[in-house]
């Protein structure tokens, strides 16, 4: 599943405090704030969010359509890519420890020419979460933390569970959670129990937003 989300990005201030100046380009807005000049007003940021159970398959040769690059010009602010059932056989996992896994590699190769940088990634067996952002947003992404929660075999095995990444973006707290839960309707109670367990166990340090649902 692919979705695009837009939200207000920038320092929060009252309507009376909003500075009046000419519109700035996407890149000059954060730079104006960083350099100590007139703070840039909030503007709409676009997130491209992907969740995909890849079924142990290799990455396709071309992920242009998946990333929406065929209908845009690289103006998306952030990409959040959550994959489930990435190949986690022992020989494959050992290779991924030594080298970048193939899914991360193909995403970086496709996005880097458009000025995107990998902010953080988290892997737990077949679960993979990647967060990319435009390079000029990096000074305003703070407090990046990741968490993992195993729910397979009573919490001992990571074939099921959740991986997350939290951060503040221009002072706004955001958390992305990628889960792989028991399938089929007959397992809906177990699925809900696992999700509640993930929410309870995922706690972040040194932040006002300590749990997943505490974020904005």
UniProtKB/TrEMBL annotation:
This is phosphoinositide 5-phosphatase. It comes from the Eukaryota. Its EC number is 3.1.3.36. SMART domains: IPPc. Residues 43-214 form the Inositol polyphosphate-related phosphatase domain. It comes from Ilyodon furcidens (goldbreast splitfin). Residues 1-37 are annotated as: Disordered. It is an enzyme of class 3 (hydrolase). InterPro entries: Endo/exonu/phosph_ase_sf, IP5, IPPc. Residues 13-29 have a biased composition (Basic and acidic residues). It holds the Pfam family Exo_endo_phos2. Gene3D superfamilies: Endonuclease/exonuclease/phosphatase.
């Amino acid at each position: 599943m692919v979705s695009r989300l837009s939200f207000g990005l920038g320092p929060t201030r009252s309507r009376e405090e909003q500075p009046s100046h000419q519109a700035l380009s996407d890149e000059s807005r954060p730079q104006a704030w960083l350099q100590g000049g007139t703070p840039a007003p909030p503007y709409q940021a676009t997130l491209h969010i992907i969740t995909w159970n890849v079924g142990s398959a290799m990455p396709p040769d071309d992920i242009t359509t998946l990333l929406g690059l065929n209908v845009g010009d690289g103006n998306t602010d952030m990409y959040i890519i959550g994959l489930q059932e990435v190949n986690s056989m022992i020989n494959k996992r050992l290779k991924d420890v030594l080298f970048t896994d193939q899914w991360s590699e193909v995403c970086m190769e496709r996005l880097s020419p458009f000025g995107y940088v990998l902010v953080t990634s988290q892997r737990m067996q077949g679960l993979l979460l990647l967060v990319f952002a435009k390079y000029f947003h990096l000074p305003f992404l703070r407090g990046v933390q990741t968490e993992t929660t195993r729910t397979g075999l009573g919490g001992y095995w990571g074939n099921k569970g959740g991986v997350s990444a939290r951060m503040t973006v221009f002072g706004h707290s955001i958390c992305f959670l990628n889960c792989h839960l028991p399938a089929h309707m007959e397992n809906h109670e177990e699925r809900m129990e696992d999700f509640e367990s993930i929410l309870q166990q995922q706690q972040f340090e040194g932040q006002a937003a300590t749990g997943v649902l505490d974020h904005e």
